[in-house]
Amino acid sequence: MIGRAAILLILFIIAAALALRQVNTPTPASSATAATTTTVTARPGTPTTTSHSGGHATTTTTTTTPPSQVPVLVANGSNVTGAAGSISTELQAAGWQILPAENATSNVTSSVVYYVAGLQPSAAAIAKLLGVPTSGVQPLTSAAPVGAVGTAEVVVVVGPDVASKIGTTTTTTTRPTTTTTKAHGTTTTTKARS
User: How many angstroms separate the CA atoms of 102 and 162, rounded?
Assistant: First the structure.
């Protein structure tokens, strides 16, 4: 019994010594801070920021979602017929994944690019492409003048400012011509290059 009590006493002394050592461990100098790592992760391919700080150093890494992986809905909130379709075509040509265009639930005074959480960089890129100011890039809420957005992650509501920039495209086709010249019994035929 004394042997068991002695073992318990020895274990208690060791535990107490370790606890005191933890309490008396010196802290780093006041000008340095402990190293920390913060990682914020969204869905694959969405912007991710990782910050490492120890002392005064900070590293930030940001990735963006490729346009082909961002479903975009364009809604016409202007009085210009076909504005949503024209903008959809422009965005698709730029590589964005376009959903069928639709009409907004009401007309707007200026264009707005709405985004779901994590896709603000994509919305900002679309706004820049369309000439929408940064104040026109906003989180998607139920207040947006669109019906059901389905799988859309970015919603563009085309207002008269962007719709007025939609111009008609003029295509000019040049056809080859043939010129025939007769001079003193000799005929020369020249065909223009296509």
Answer: 16
Copy the structure tokens of residue 163. Answer: 């719709």
Q: Which two tokens stand for residue 134?
A: 């940064």
Q: Give yes or no for residue 139 having a pLDDT over 60.
A: yes
- Structure-token pair, residue 138: 């906003």
SS3 123: helix
Here the tokens at position 139 are 């989180």
Ramachandran angles phi, psi of 76, nearest 5°: -85, 115
Instruction: Determine the 3-state secondary structure of 185 from DSSP.
Output: coil
Residue 119, pLDDT > 90, answer: yes
Residue whose entry in the numeric block shows the structure tokens 């010249």: 181
Fold of 71-163: Alpha-Beta Plaits (3.30.70)
Say how many residues make up the chain: 194
Burial class of residue 162 (count of CB atoms within 10 Å of its CB; 0-12, 13-18, 19+): buried
**Cα(104)–Cα(149) distance, integer angstroms:** 11
Domain coordinates of the chain in residue numbers? 71-163
The whole-number pLDDT of residue 49 equals 44
Q: Are 156 and 124 in contact (CB under 8 A)?
A: no
Tokens of 14: 């060791």
Q: Which of 40-54, 63-77, 115-129, 147-161 has the lowest mean pLDDT?
A: 40-54
